[in-house]
Amino acid sequence: MMFDGVVITHGTDTLDETPYFLNLTVKSNKPVVFTAAMRPATAISADGPMNLLEAVTVAADPQAKGRGVMVVLNDRIGAARFVTKTNATTLDTFKAPEEGYLGVIVSGKPQFETRWIKFIPWRSVFDVRQLNALPKVVIIYGYQDDPEYMYDAAIAHHADGIIYAGTGAGIGLRTQRGGDRKSGKSRYRGGSRLAHRQRRRAG
C-alpha cells in the first residue's frame, strides 16, 4: 500500500513519550505525525477536529519528508525529539522550550521555519523489528534519602535495566550510589544495568 505519511491520534498524558520512542525506532523518511486534543469533543471550541485536520495536512506535505516523527497541535509543528508537555490543561501545552518548533500552520498550510532534519531517518538508533517484547526497564526517581529497596525490588523482579532520574547535573545521591553498586553486581547474574538521567521534562 502506498502512502505519503502516517497520522496517529494519542492521549495527551504521554504524548511526548510515544513519539519520542518512535523517533528512535521508525526506519522511514516518511512523516509520522501525532496529534491529540486538550479539550473534549463536547466542549465549546473543541480543538480536536482542527488538530486532526492540521496533522493530516502536515503528513501529506512534501516538506515534511525526512523530518522524523512530529507532534502537531494548536497550529504548531514540534519535533518528537524535543517537544514536551508543559501544562495539564492549556491548549499550547506542547512546546520545545530550548530548541523551538519545527514550524507553524498558517491559513491551513504548514510553514517549516527551522531546518532541523532527523539524521538519516531510515537508520534510527534502535532496531526493534526482531523483538517480540521490549526490555523491562524500571525508572527510579531520586530524592533526598530515597530508599535503596527500590533498587532491590527492581533487581528482584529481573528488570533488564534501571533508569535513575536524578537531581542536578548527574550528581548521584548516597542511595543512588548504593543502588549503582547493587545493579552492577547483578550484571554478572544477567541482571539489571543502571543508567543515569537528570530530570528535565515536566507535565
TrEMBL record:
The keyword Hydrolase applies. It is an enzyme of class 3 (hydrolase). Keywords: Hydrolase. This is L-asparaginase, type II. SMART domains: Asparaginase. The gene is ansB. The keyword Hydrolase applies. PANTHER family: 60 KDA LYSOPHOSPHOLIPASE (PTHR11707:SF28), L-ASPARAGINASE (PTHR11707). Coiled coil: none annotated. Gene3D superfamilies: 3.40.50.40, L-asparaginase, N-terminal domain. The lineage of its organism: Bacteria, Pseudomonadati, Pseudomonadota, Gammaproteobacteria, Enterobacterales. Belongs to the asparaginase 1 family. GO terms for biological process: asparagine metabolic process. It holds the Pfam family Asparaginase. Its EC number is 3.5.1.1. Residues 174-203 are annotated as: Disordered. GO terms for molecular function: asparaginase activity. The active site is at T12. CDD domains: L-asparaginase_II (cd08964). Residues 184-203 have a biased composition (Basic residues). Residues 3-115 form the L-asparaginase N-terminal domain.
